[in-house]
Design brief:
disordered C terminus; seven-stranded mixed β-sheet; DJ-1/PfpI (chains A, B); alpha/beta; DJ-1/PfpI domain-containing protein (chains A, B); INH-QAR (chains A, B); homodimer; two-stranded antiparallel sheet; Class_I_gatase-like (chains A, B)
């Protein structure tokens, strides 16, 4: 248990384990690391090497879905108590970004606003970008947001979308020819945004290369726990989930919501997330 | 399916059902409502009547846990698409409130900041107050925050805490003699904050009168879905969970985390959420 500055928090139980590692283990790790580092010199693009991300960005736009952001990010908030990670909150301007959508007037005072730390033009280099969804993905004026994702993608180690975040970026072409998923309730609209994407209806999350797409809203948490497991190991991910008292879904194919909302791909008549196959412009 | 202002979203499937209600049903409802309204005139304190909340507040303080807030609130964000609800974000001042804790230096740039809409002095009357937890509950200087909760409680219809939110308010005495729960990993510290509280170790959430306390972090989502079911009916709550693609835990006693972290009450030697029974000041 860690005690620091008067605050109790769940210490990293692996620290003592590493401290006990023998010299031989350390030596072997050093050799392996040196070889990996040397191997990565010759490539600037993503390979199967599994680079470790340390700088994270979250992309915000008006009408983003709060849990799309804070589900996955709170996993990282907690991980960041024991690892050096940086987070940048990115938006078109530095004005606070609201979860509210101007087009919806039913709830004039029900929203939350988040403060960006950087704009599209000022954000430092990123390893990992999280793109949330939300009803705001269906609003007009998102071209600068899409351009930002398209332009920054080649320099990223990983890109993750939650919910309709995949629909938001599909028009950039980044998902073309890739397997991807998204929100199941409005699946017909999601898939209409990327006719050349290999949409996967039955999936909690999908990994294709360095792009992770997840299903609707809460699915972003399972995707992030899976990502943490992929990068830092399943023990680390399990420890985080137990700390956050979250029961993970560890099977990427687990998805009762696809069936519930009638999401299929290719779309069948009458299917498409309860929307009767209708789609809306983004 | 609702179509509004160019945006598709999951319409309230119950609307058409209500629209079909016969005149007799409407008449009966009017009578019942009139009787209930008349009965409530004579009492200013909470009874078993189940008043409907429409104004919600979230209490923020530095070092709050993001998912404690946005897990439950995003349920309400989505509910608010079809119901007139107001949300006030409340803090000691109107400065953005960060998830960061000054005392923890390991992660200097990993935090998010939320914009308050009201201070303790300016917040309009509230029906429902959400008190999150987080490492910030263990920081000094929280007396004004506790005083705010203590002073506003008598005018609330409901008070809900998430995670160490129960430990934050325990020193006010509001939980004395009541059943309550909280974070299981630092259970010993949580329970040390309220020696006169009837702490329930094995619980996803606990309801005592109009105070709902939930277990660690992610448990706040299950508590909020249960609350929505209590107020607006289980069908409404289920529809929200399916929309947010969240698998609810509907059993308030479900809690594998209490056993995992060794949380018991009264505390047994060596128990207390992995902290060996140690406690920290709040």
């Amino acid at each position: 248990m860690l005690y620091s500055g008067g605050l109790y928090f769940g210490g990293n139980r692996y620290k003592s384990r590493y401290a006990d590692a023998s010299f031989a283990t350390w030596f072997l790790r050093t050799i392996v690391f040196t070889i990996m580092a040397a191997a990565s010199v010759n490539t600037a693009t993503y390979t199967d090497e599994k680079p470790i991300p340390t700088t994270f960005g979250v992309l915000l736009f008006p009408g983003f879905q709060a849990l799309d952001v804070f589900g996955p990010i709170d996993v990282l908030n907690t991980l960041a108590l024991s690892k050096k990670l940086n987070l940048y909150i990115i938006a078109e301007t530095l004005d606070p970004v609201t979860t509210k959508i101007a087009a919806i007037n039913t709830s004039p005072e029900f929203s939350e606003s988040i403060v960006p730390t950087h704009t599209f033009d000022t954000v430092p280099p990123l390893d990992f970008l999280l793109v949330p969804g939300g009803l705001g993905t269906q609003a007009p004026g998102l071209d600068p947001t899409r351009d930002f994702v398209k332009n920054i993608y080649p320099s990223l180690k990983y890109l993750m979308t939650v919910c309709t975040g995949s629909a938001l970026i599909a028009p950039t072409g980044l998902l073309d020819g890739r397997r991807a998923t998204g929100n199941k309730k409005i699946w017909a609209w999601v898939t209409s945004q990327g006719p050349n994407v290999n949409w996967v209806a039955q999936a909690r999350w999908v990994v294709d290369g360095n792009i992770w797409t997840s299903s609707g809203i809460a699915a972003g948490m399972d995707a992030m726990y899976a990502f943490v497991g992929y990068i830092w190991g399943e023990e680390q991910s399990k420890d985080l989930a137990m700390t956050l008292e979250y029961e993970r879904h560890t099977d990427a194919d687990w998805d009762p919501f696809a069936e519930y909302w009638g999401a299929t791909w290719p779309l069948t008549p009458g299917a498409g997330g309860g929307n009767g196959g209708a789609g809306a412009g983004g």
